[in-house]
Amino acid sequence: MAGELFVTLGVLLLLFAFYEAFWTNVRSGQLQDQANHALQESWDSGQRINPRTYKNGAQGAAFARLHIPAYGSDWNFAVMHGVDDTTLLSGPGHYEQTQGPGQAGNFALAGHRVGKGAPFNDLGKLEACDAIVIETASEWITYRVMPMSQDAAARQQQSHCLSPEQAQRVATGDYAHVLGRHITLPGDVGVIAPLPGTELGVSQDLEGVLTLTTCHPQFSNAERMIVHAMKVAVEPKSEGQRPAVLKES
Fold first, then answer.
1. Could you tell me the pTM of the whole model?
2. Which residue of 72, 106, 164, 167 lies most exposed, with the fewest beta carbons within 10 A?
3. Where along the chain is the active site annotated (predicted)?
C-alpha cells in the first residue's frame, strides 16, 4: 500500500514538473507573442508613451522590450505594466510604483525563473558590466550590471564600463552598498527603492538603475534573486538600425 502511494506521488510530481516546465512555457510563449505584436503595432502606428504614464498604463499591456545581449542578439521580451500573476504569464512586468525606463531612480521588473516563459531563468549567469538594454518607442537605453563584490578595490575594477563619476559612486560613494546580484527574502522591498537598500525618495541626482527580480532557488519562492544595473547610455531609435551593444555576447 505504501509503495503504491509513493508511486502515485511520484507520478503526480512528474506531471506537475511537466506542466511547469513545458505547458506553461507554451502558453506563456503564445501570450508573449501577442504582447510583442500589439507593442510593435502601437509603435508602427506612431503611438508614444508619455513618461508620466509608465506608472498608470493598462494592466498587462506591453510598453517596452527587454534585451540581454549575453543571452543572444535576438533574445528579447516585451515588458508589461504590473506584476500580478496574470500579467507575469505574458512576460516580465514593471513594478508600477518604481520609475520608468531611463529615469532617475529605479526601474524595477519582475519575471519568472521556471516555467511561464522563464524570462529570468539565467539571471544567475550575468556578470558585472554585462549589458541590459531597454527598448522603448523612441530610444535604446543601455544599463550595465553593477559590481558583484563588496570590496571597494574589486568594485572599482568591475566598474570599468561606467563613467568615472559613476565608478566612484559605485566603489566608495552612495551606491557602494548596491550589488550587481544578491539573494534576499521576498519581503525585502528595499531592492526596488529609488536608491536600492535605502529609504531615499526620487531625486534627479540619483543614477538611473534597472532592477530585475525573480524567485530563488529554482522551483521555489523561498527567496529572491536580485540583479541591479546602472544606466550608461541612451540612443535615439532610427528606422532599420539596432545599437551595437545588442551584438555583445
1. 0.90
2. 164
3. 112 (proton donor/acceptor), 215 (acyl-thioester intermediate)
